[in-house]
Design goal:
With 384 residues, the chain is α/β, with parallel strands linked by helices. The chain has two domains: 199 residues, Rossmann fold; 123 residues, Rossmann fold. It has twelve helices and 15 strands. It has a five-stranded parallel beta sheet with strand order 2-1-3-4-5, with helices on both faces. α2 links the parallel β1 and β2.
Length: 384
Amino acid sequence: MKKSFIIILSYITIFFNSNVLSDEQNQLLKIGLLAPLSGEYRGLGNSLLYSLQMALEEIDDDNVIIIPRDSGLNNKEKLNAAIKDIRSQGARIIIGPINNEDFKEVKKYSDILFISPSNISPEFDNNIISVGISLESQLTSIFKFIKKEKKNKTVILFPKNEYSDFIEAKLNKFDLKNMKTFQYSPDPRVLTGEIEELTNYSQRKKNLELRKKMFQDKEDDQSIKELERLEQLYTLGNVNFDSVIIIDFGSNLKSVLTSLVYTDVNQKNVLFTTVNQWFDESIFYENTIKTLYYPSINYKEFQKYNKKYFKKYKSFPNEITILTYDALGLIYYTWKKNGKINSINDFSFNSKIKGKIGVFSFKDKKVRQELEIYKTEKNKFVKY
């Protein structure tokens, strides 16, 4: 049966009075939703609601009830009021919060389980499971890819900003043998000089000039041809790495890529990789890079989800809504499998789960996503 979904907040109480309170509690799966349904970020909140509506229609089970409440964004008062209201309706599992900064607040509700789209930590954290695309899962996929490509001198680049300590902590969990890290300034005026230092650009530039002088006064055919070849180069000599991992996004990522190309890093010899970009098509316009690789969720499923959403609601969804779509499916699967959901331990099962984002699993109280590698090629995203 198709589900009707209430978006206007003033109608939500009526929805519960007519549907929730009249049903037998033990036969229902009641799931709360924390979303910014008013204010500046209400568009995101509505997108989350629409996504769950689609998931409900696919599940097609009258016993599943969604209880949405306005939690605002970075608003402790609204957040607590929303959680208490959801709990008063009999729900003991909630999708949200979307912001990991709220984790400290929701941990106070030990009788409630929260499934968050945050990607900060893959580990179960008290009463919180984060199902976002974690940096650990992304790095695991990249490292496997680099090893498969037989690259053994990798440099990991990331910016000096408020996330530096977080990134370093995640990197410390891996064996970084044959890898080195390099932090750069997010200021483009400083960045170019730092990349020049990383790539030994000045010395490679000097090497070229010295090499050209060796042939400039010679008139034999071989020397003339060699000089012509050297005139086509910008530097001479290789960099001391064969792959790069850039942990950055948007304009900052593009600045790093541009600087690497400017310093004449040979793209035929050096593998360029980055972290999940959610299939951001603006990367196509960064024409200095011929091929860029990164791990991500299943592209075909992502496209299908976006098309279905657009057809139904005449707009495109926020990227994280696909995570809440899968979160509802995960909760429903667990409920059907166990017959109940009493605690976070009910999600500790060995079998892998296939969702819209791809394959993921829960083992040793840790979420693991099996991400695929994609590359940008001729204005397309191509699965590796």
